[in-house]
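question for whoever is on the cluster today: can someone run the full assembly for these? three chains, 769 residues total. i dont have access anymore since they changed the login thing
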Amino acid sequence: MLNRPNLLKLLSAVIVFGSWEIAGRVPVSYSFPTFVDSMQALAVLAWEGTLFTAYVETLKPLAVGVGISTVLGISLGLWIGLSKFFDWLVSPIFVVMQAAPLAALIPLLVMAYGIGLTSKVFVVCIMAMPVIVLNTAGAVRHTPESMKEMCNSFLGTRLDMLIKIIIPAASPLIFSGLRLGVSAGFIGAILSELKITPTGVGDIITYSRSIADYPSMYAAIFSIILLAVLFLNLLERTEKTLFKGNDLGYVSD
Amino acid sequence: MTVYGYRLPGFSSLILWGLLWEVIGQLDVTFFVPPLSEVIRTLFSIIGTPAFTKALAETGYAFSISVAIAIGLGIPIGILMGRSRLLDELLLPWVNMFLSAPLTALVPVLMVLFGFGMKSIIITTTLFAIWIIILNSRAGVRQINRSLVEMAQSYGASPFDAFFKIYFWAALPEILGGVRIGIIRAVKGVIIGQLLISIVGFGALFELYSSNFLMAHFWAILIVLFTLAFTISEFLAYLERKVAYYAAKR
Amino acid sequence: MSQTNPPPVATEEAPSDIAVSVRNVSKNYGDVEALKDLTLDFPRGELTSLLGPSGCGKTTLLKIIAGLLKPTSGEVEISGKPITGPGPDRAFVFQDFALLPWATVLRNVAFGLELRGVAKSEREAIAEKYINNVGLSGFEHSYPHELSGGMRQRVGLARALSVDADVLLMDEPFSAVDEQTRRKFQEDLLTLVHEENKTFIFVTHSIEEAVYVSDQIAILLPRPSRVLEVIRPSGFRNKSADSIRRDPEYLDIVDNIWASLRSYVE
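^ ran it for u. tokens below:
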């Protein structure tokens, strides 16, 4: 396990967390706690159970939003990939959504749907859907011609073509689109926490900040980032094992 | 797609959607959606106003500085990572992590450390943009055709020549791709920054209009922002296509 | 006709002026022995082919001679002097052309000279001459992606010729073009070798090609790489390009080589 790449990863972690600790001791700013202090606060939060109840709250809109985006997004993506008319009609919307700063819509959603779960789910959806839809559509459109011709030459039906050729061939890209969607969904979930109403983890962050309990604030933020990164890495690893032999390149929009 | 033999241009369906918007607005289906025509009229009326120009200037300022930093730091770091295995192994896990991490979570930290002003927004935006620029620059350098490298060696090129005459250009299409995505992320970052840190630029305008229920105004500046983001992105995509053949394999 | 380890016995006396001399060269990649204790001479002014099935290390050997790879042990001498890396006495022609996609034909051909610091007007004049020599006049301001595969390789060849190196190293230069272009190239290569006073080292896996163009053929075997034998076709070297392929000696040599190599094909 202690081969060169892992050793270097460990080394870089030590360097980063070490610098955090040193910066906290200097201190760089009165509101910059040391690494050790923050980890202590994290342990306390976890031990008291506050952290876990908070996460349940925060992850609710994320789970619901991602669930809806997945089902809706993949269906739309498939439809767009398969129908030229639907592609012409609907793609531009998603392309614009992809490039645009959708976060600007949050105040509008709050006005329309209030500050409850609904608007938070909406935020997660608008952040996650475009990339899922566009990735799925792209994957379907780029099904290798020769595979489709092969299906035809062996007299496959259109249903065969869809289920046995197009969807399996598109799966790697669809999955990677899902991964990106989840990543965007996380941003949406946190944005809604910080901007709409703080519940869950957002609450810990804003509350600790207001009482100047910086170690707890940093601890909460550290935990979200850690969670998001771990979860996305897990997805990526699943992707790699499920779709061995498909090179997907980098995590990117 | 074609209709009766006429080929319809790519984004023409937006015209249809625009018409739909107008109809929904005119029918007064919901307070939140005024007719498109009213939005456009409001758009033209606010464009010249001092409030708008101030917002544009502030946002533009933050955006430009952030992008400049992200490019100025990101491209060299990415290139160095692509060429040095040690540096790559040390830094890549962090770059990948920050790329997928919800950077929004860092904004409270930045606010606490750097205050509620321009500095925090600039740092936020830079952080949003830089990681993909680093990754793509690294990818661009790594995908350089091995033969070009050997060709440079066999004709005795100095490291300086090799980099500026060959490697940089061969990596350019990929680097431009990274910059394009980075800029899109920077637009998102600057808006998120302004929404959370507030007080300046378009964030302030959004707050103002929404709290006063000036829907047409709200949609107007939303359209301005969307259009700006989109135009920049398309322009960069155009440049990218122009130099795509620089990375040709043979 | 088989002999295994050194010294390889040529079927006819080789000339005594040796341009490139490879002595006991070995190259290991970890546990893999790409080349093992290889010794070979390349006479000046002639074209020697390195022929063999995949994995026999012929491209590795070529790159070691070019100075692009360092041997694990052994030496390479050019005109009696050992080499330490790439040098102006050798020029390389790449299998996938290795042209700069963003540069015109003129700049590409002049590129070797550009890297040596030759002044622009001078190097462009030299480049134009060689562009003409390889039959690409009129295409000076075209870009590689506007040219066919055969034309691109001629640009690569012109670039290698314009630096006026003594030794020209060619790594399967015709394998990436279509068959008809390839035949034309082989004929042109004969003329080129005849006109230029350079030493050519030519890697190929095509038996016909090797026998057609070479003054000397070194047949290499894989795992570990070694020289099976060195053949010097004699009789038909002075015939016209068209009649070589029907010459009995040509056909005999091709058949014999195939018979030797057949068992080594996977």
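summary bc i know u wont read the tokens: DSSP finds ten helices and no strands in chain A. Residues 205 and 220 of chain A are 6 Å apart (CA to CA).
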